[in-house]
Protein backbone atom coordinates (compact mmCIF):
# COMPACT_ATOMS: atom_id res chain seq x y z
CA UNK A 1 0.00 0.00 0.00
CA UNK A 2 2.51 2.55 1.18
CA UNK A 3 4.77 1.65 -1.75
CA UNK A 4 2.06 2.70 -4.16
CA UNK A 5 1.67 6.03 -2.46
CA UNK A 6 5.39 6.68 -2.58
CA UNK A 7 5.57 5.68 -6.23
CA UNK A 8 2.73 7.99 -7.14
CA UNK A 9 4.31 10.80 -5.15
CA UNK A 10 7.59 10.42 -6.98
CA UNK A 11 5.83 10.56 -10.34
CA UNK A 12 4.35 13.86 -9.31
CA UNK A 13 7.75 15.22 -8.43
CA UNK A 14 9.14 14.10 -11.76
CA UNK A 15 6.28 15.76 -13.58
CA UNK A 16 6.86 18.95 -11.66
CA UNK A 17 10.55 18.83 -12.46
CA UNK A 18 9.81 18.20 -16.13
CA UNK A 19 7.51 21.20 -16.14
CA UNK A 20 10.19 23.32 -14.50
CA UNK A 21 12.79 22.16 -17.02
CA UNK A 22 10.36 22.97 -19.82
CA UNK A 23 9.67 26.37 -18.33
CA UNK A 24 13.36 27.18 -18.09
CA UNK A 25 13.78 26.39 -21.81
CA UNK A 26 11.57 29.05 -23.23
CA UNK A 27 9.43 30.36 -20.46
CA UNK A 28 12.02 32.17 -18.39
CA UNK A 29 11.04 35.49 -16.95
CA UNK A 30 13.14 37.94 -18.96
CA UNK A 31 14.21 41.19 -17.37
CA UNK A 32 13.45 44.30 -19.43
CA UNK A 33 15.48 47.31 -18.31
CA UNK A 34 13.46 50.50 -17.96
CA UNK A 35 14.66 53.87 -19.19
CA UNK A 36 16.88 55.57 -16.65
CA UNK A 37 18.29 53.77 -13.65
CA UNK A 38 17.85 50.10 -12.83
CA UNK A 39 19.38 48.40 -9.81
CA UNK A 40 20.31 44.77 -10.43
CA UNK A 41 21.80 42.07 -8.28
CA UNK A 42 23.62 39.41 -10.26
CA UNK A 43 23.41 35.97 -8.71
CA UNK A 44 26.70 34.13 -8.15
CA UNK A 45 27.62 31.26 -10.47
CA UNK A 46 25.73 28.06 -9.70
CA UNK A 47 27.68 25.22 -8.11
CA UNK A 48 30.37 23.83 -10.38
CA UNK A 49 30.61 27.02 -12.47
CA UNK A 50 33.04 29.91 -12.20
CA UNK A 51 31.15 32.57 -14.12
CA UNK A 52 27.68 34.00 -13.60
CA UNK A 53 27.45 34.55 -17.36
CA UNK A 54 26.62 32.25 -20.23
CA UNK A 55 27.89 33.57 -23.54
CA UNK A 56 26.19 32.71 -26.78
CA UNK A 57 26.16 33.89 -30.38
CA UNK A 58 22.86 34.34 -32.13
CA UNK A 59 21.64 34.95 -35.64
CA UNK A 60 18.39 36.77 -36.30
CA UNK A 61 16.76 35.06 -39.23
CA UNK A 62 13.55 35.16 -41.22
CA UNK A 63 11.91 31.75 -41.28
CA UNK A 64 10.03 30.34 -44.30
CA UNK A 65 6.71 31.41 -42.73
CA UNK A 66 7.95 35.02 -42.64
CA UNK A 67 8.43 35.17 -38.87
CA UNK A 68 11.64 36.47 -37.31
CA UNK A 69 13.48 34.17 -34.97
CA UNK A 70 16.84 33.88 -33.31
CA UNK A 71 19.00 30.86 -33.80
CA UNK A 72 22.20 30.09 -31.95
CA UNK A 73 25.22 30.02 -34.22
CA UNK A 74 26.60 26.50 -34.61
CA UNK A 75 29.96 27.79 -35.81
CA UNK A 76 30.60 30.23 -32.94
CA UNK A 77 28.96 28.30 -30.12
CA UNK A 78 29.69 24.66 -30.95
CA UNK A 79 32.40 24.83 -33.63
CA UNK A 80 30.16 22.96 -36.01
CA UNK A 81 28.68 23.84 -39.41
CA UNK A 82 26.15 26.65 -39.29
CA UNK A 83 23.75 27.13 -42.22
CA UNK A 84 23.35 30.85 -41.50
CA UNK A 85 27.12 31.47 -41.50
CA UNK A 86 27.38 29.46 -44.72
CA UNK A 87 24.75 31.70 -46.28
CA UNK A 88 26.72 34.73 -45.07
CA UNK A 89 29.95 33.27 -46.53
CA UNK A 90 28.24 32.75 -49.89
CA UNK A 91 27.09 36.38 -49.94
CA UNK A 92 30.53 37.67 -48.96
CA UNK A 93 32.16 35.58 -51.68
CA UNK A 94 29.86 36.68 -54.47
CA UNK A 95 31.87 39.84 -55.15
CA UNK A 96 28.64 41.78 -55.54
CA UNK A 97 28.21 44.90 -53.40
CA UNK A 98 24.52 44.28 -52.70
CA UNK A 99 25.31 40.76 -51.48
CA UNK A 100 28.19 42.08 -49.40
CA UNK A 101 25.86 44.50 -47.61
CA UNK A 102 23.16 41.83 -47.21
CA UNK A 103 25.72 39.55 -45.53
CA UNK A 104 25.93 41.83 -42.49
CA UNK A 105 22.37 40.89 -41.61
CA UNK A 106 23.53 37.29 -41.15
CA UNK A 107 26.40 38.02 -38.78
CA UNK A 108 26.17 36.21 -35.45
CA UNK A 109 25.78 38.56 -32.51
CA UNK A 110 27.20 38.11 -29.05
CA UNK A 111 24.54 37.61 -26.41
CA UNK A 112 25.20 37.06 -22.72
CA UNK A 113 22.75 35.67 -20.18
CA UNK A 114 22.74 36.00 -16.40
CA UNK A 115 20.39 35.35 -13.50
CA UNK A 116 19.49 38.60 -11.76
CA UNK A 117 17.20 40.12 -9.16
CA UNK A 118 15.57 43.44 -10.05
CA UNK A 119 15.95 45.47 -6.84
CA UNK A 120 12.95 47.59 -7.86
CA UNK A 121 10.77 44.50 -8.22
CA UNK A 122 12.15 41.77 -5.98
CA UNK A 123 8.74 40.09 -5.87
CA UNK A 124 9.40 38.88 -9.41
CA UNK A 125 12.22 36.72 -8.03
CA UNK A 126 14.96 35.48 -10.32
CA UNK A 127 14.87 36.79 -13.89
CA UNK A 128 17.11 36.21 -16.89
CA UNK A 129 18.91 39.26 -18.23
CA UNK A 130 20.17 39.02 -21.81
CA UNK A 131 22.65 41.66 -22.90
CA UNK A 132 25.33 42.47 -25.45
CA UNK A 133 29.04 43.07 -25.50
CA UNK A 134 29.09 46.65 -24.18
CA UNK A 135 27.37 45.62 -20.93
CA UNK A 136 29.60 42.55 -20.64
CA UNK A 137 32.74 44.68 -21.07
CA UNK A 138 31.59 47.04 -18.33
CA UNK A 139 30.69 44.21 -15.94
CA UNK A 140 34.04 42.50 -16.49
CA UNK A 141 35.82 45.82 -15.86
CA UNK A 142 33.91 46.22 -12.56
CA UNK A 143 34.79 42.66 -11.57
CA UNK A 144 38.49 43.28 -12.27
CA UNK A 145 38.62 46.66 -10.52
CA UNK A 146 40.09 45.89 -7.09
CA UNK A 147 39.45 49.39 -5.70
CA UNK A 148 36.04 50.48 -6.93
CA UNK A 149 34.72 47.07 -7.95
CA UNK A 150 35.21 43.38 -7.13
CA UNK A 151 33.01 40.31 -7.05
CA UNK A 152 29.61 41.92 -7.24
CA UNK A 153 27.88 38.53 -7.11
CA UNK A 154 29.12 37.63 -3.61
CA UNK A 155 26.11 36.56 -1.52
CA UNK A 156 27.29 38.25 1.69
CA UNK A 157 29.55 41.03 0.54
CA UNK A 158 28.74 41.77 -3.10
CA UNK A 159 27.03 44.85 -4.42
CA UNK A 160 24.29 45.89 -6.79
CA UNK A 161 24.94 47.08 -10.32
CA UNK A 162 23.34 50.32 -11.39
CA UNK A 163 22.37 49.91 -15.02
CA UNK A 164 21.32 53.07 -16.81
CA UNK A 165 19.39 52.78 -20.06
CA UNK A 166 19.45 55.69 -22.48
CA UNK A 167 17.65 55.84 -25.82
CA UNK A 168 15.51 53.29 -27.63
CA UNK A 169 15.79 50.63 -30.30
CA UNK A 170 19.07 50.37 -32.15
CA UNK A 171 20.31 53.53 -30.40
CA UNK A 172 19.93 52.18 -26.88
CA UNK A 173 22.96 52.67 -24.68
CA UNK A 174 23.67 51.04 -21.35
CA UNK A 175 26.05 52.16 -18.63
CA UNK A 176 26.95 50.01 -15.64
CA UNK A 177 28.21 51.36 -12.34
CA UNK A 178 29.02 49.66 -9.06
CA UNK A 179 26.69 50.59 -6.24
CA UNK A 180 28.44 52.60 -3.55
CA UNK A 181 27.34 50.22 -0.79
CA UNK A 182 28.24 46.57 -0.34
CA UNK A 183 25.25 44.43 0.49
CA UNK A 184 24.05 40.88 0.94
CA UNK A 185 22.01 39.23 -1.80
CA UNK A 186 19.20 39.51 0.76
CA UNK A 187 19.10 40.22 4.50
CA UNK A 188 16.64 37.35 4.68
CA UNK A 189 18.73 34.14 4.52
CA UNK A 190 15.70 32.08 3.49
CA UNK A 191 14.97 34.40 0.59
CA UNK A 192 18.63 34.27 -0.48
CA UNK A 193 18.53 30.46 -0.56
CA UNK A 194 15.22 30.49 -2.39
CA UNK A 195 16.67 32.74 -5.10
CA UNK A 196 19.83 30.65 -5.33
CA UNK A 197 17.74 27.50 -5.74
CA UNK A 198 15.56 29.12 -8.39
CA UNK A 199 18.27 30.18 -10.81
CA UNK A 200 17.53 29.37 -14.41
CA UNK A 201 19.73 26.86 -16.19
CA UNK A 202 21.39 29.30 -18.58
CA UNK A 203 23.07 26.56 -20.61
CA UNK A 204 19.82 26.26 -22.59
CA UNK A 205 20.71 29.61 -24.19
CA UNK A 206 23.75 28.19 -25.87
CA UNK A 207 22.10 25.06 -27.16
CA UNK A 208 22.74 24.59 -30.85
CA UNK A 209 20.57 22.65 -33.26
CA UNK A 210 22.29 19.91 -35.23
CA UNK A 211 23.19 21.24 -38.69
CA UNK A 212 20.41 19.34 -40.46
CA UNK A 213 17.75 20.64 -38.08
CA UNK A 214 19.00 24.22 -38.29
CA UNK A 215 19.04 23.99 -42.08
CA UNK A 216 15.50 22.62 -42.17
CA UNK A 217 14.25 25.33 -39.80
CA UNK A 218 15.85 28.01 -41.93
CA UNK A 219 14.80 26.83 -45.36
CA UNK A 220 11.83 24.57 -44.78
CA UNK A 221 13.74 21.93 -46.77
CA UNK A 222 15.79 18.99 -45.68
CA UNK A 223 19.52 18.98 -46.28
CA UNK A 224 19.27 15.88 -48.46
CA UNK A 225 17.03 17.63 -50.98
CA UNK A 226 19.03 20.84 -51.14
CA UNK A 227 22.62 20.97 -50.01
CA UNK A 228 23.88 24.50 -49.52
CA UNK A 229 26.85 24.00 -51.78
CA UNK A 230 28.45 26.84 -53.66
CA UNK A 231 26.97 27.69 -57.00
CA UNK A 232 29.49 28.21 -59.76
CA UNK A 233 28.89 30.68 -62.56
CA UNK A 234 27.68 27.76 -64.64
CA UNK A 235 25.06 26.96 -62.03
CA UNK A 236 26.75 23.75 -60.94
CA UNK A 237 27.01 23.03 -57.28
CA UNK A 238 30.45 22.35 -55.89
CA UNK A 239 30.61 20.02 -52.94
CA UNK A 240 30.89 21.96 -49.71
CA UNK A 241 34.50 22.01 -48.56
CA UNK A 242 34.88 23.01 -44.97
CA UNK A 243 37.97 24.40 -43.29
CA UNK A 244 39.08 22.52 -40.17
CA UNK A 245 36.86 23.20 -37.18
CA UNK A 246 39.50 25.11 -35.19
CA UNK A 247 40.14 27.51 -38.06
CA UNK A 248 36.42 28.10 -38.46
CA UNK A 249 36.08 28.90 -34.80
CA UNK A 250 38.76 31.56 -34.95
CA UNK A 251 36.96 33.39 -37.69
CA UNK A 252 35.18 35.94 -35.59
CA UNK A 253 33.06 37.64 -38.18
CA UNK A 254 30.60 38.85 -35.60
CA UNK A 255 28.73 41.95 -34.64
CA UNK A 256 30.10 43.57 -31.53
CA UNK A 257 26.83 44.35 -29.94
CA UNK A 258 23.11 44.17 -30.29
CA UNK A 259 20.47 46.29 -28.68
CA UNK A 260 17.12 44.69 -28.31
ZN1 LIG B 1 26.43 30.93 -37.56
Distance from N terminus to C terminus (CA atoms, Å) equals 56 Å
| Secondary structural class | alpha+beta
Total helices: the number is: 8
Query: How much of the polypeptide forms β-strand, as a percent range?
Result: 15-25%
The largest β sheet comes out as: 7 strands, antiparallel
- Report helical residue fraction: 25-40%
Name the average pLDDT.
83
Computed over alpha carbons, the radius of gyration is: 22 Å
SSE order in H/E notation? HEEEHHHEEHEEHHEEH
The unique ligands bound to this protein are:
zinc ion
| Global geometry | elongated
Q: What is the quaternary state of this protein?
A: single chain
Low-confidence stretches: 1-10, 230-252
Kindly state the number of beta strands: 9
Q: What would you note in describing this structure?
A:
There is one protein chain. The protein has 260 residues and is α+β, with helices and mostly antiparallel strands. It has 8 helices and 9 strands. The chain has helices at residues 2-26, 74-78, 83-93, 97-103, 133-144, 189-197, 211-219, 245-250, and strands at residues 36-42, 53-62, 68-72, 109-118, 126-131, 158-166, 173-183, 230-231, 237-238. Strands 1, 2, 3, 4, 5, 6 and 7 form a 7-stranded antiparallel sheet that branches. Helix 3 (83-93) packs antiparallel against helix 4 (97-103). The radius of gyration is 22 Å and the shape is elongated. 23% of the residues are buried. The structure holds zinc ion (ZN). Zinc ion (ZN) binds at residues 59, 73-76, 82, 84-85, 108.
Amino acid sequence: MSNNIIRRGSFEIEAAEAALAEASKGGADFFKPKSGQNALRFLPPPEGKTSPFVVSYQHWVTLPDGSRSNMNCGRMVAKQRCPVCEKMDDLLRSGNEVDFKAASEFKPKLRVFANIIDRDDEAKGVQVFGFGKSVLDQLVAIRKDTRAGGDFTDIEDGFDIILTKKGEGMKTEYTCLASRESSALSDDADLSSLWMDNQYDLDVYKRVLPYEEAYAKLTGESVASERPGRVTSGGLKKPEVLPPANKTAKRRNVEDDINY
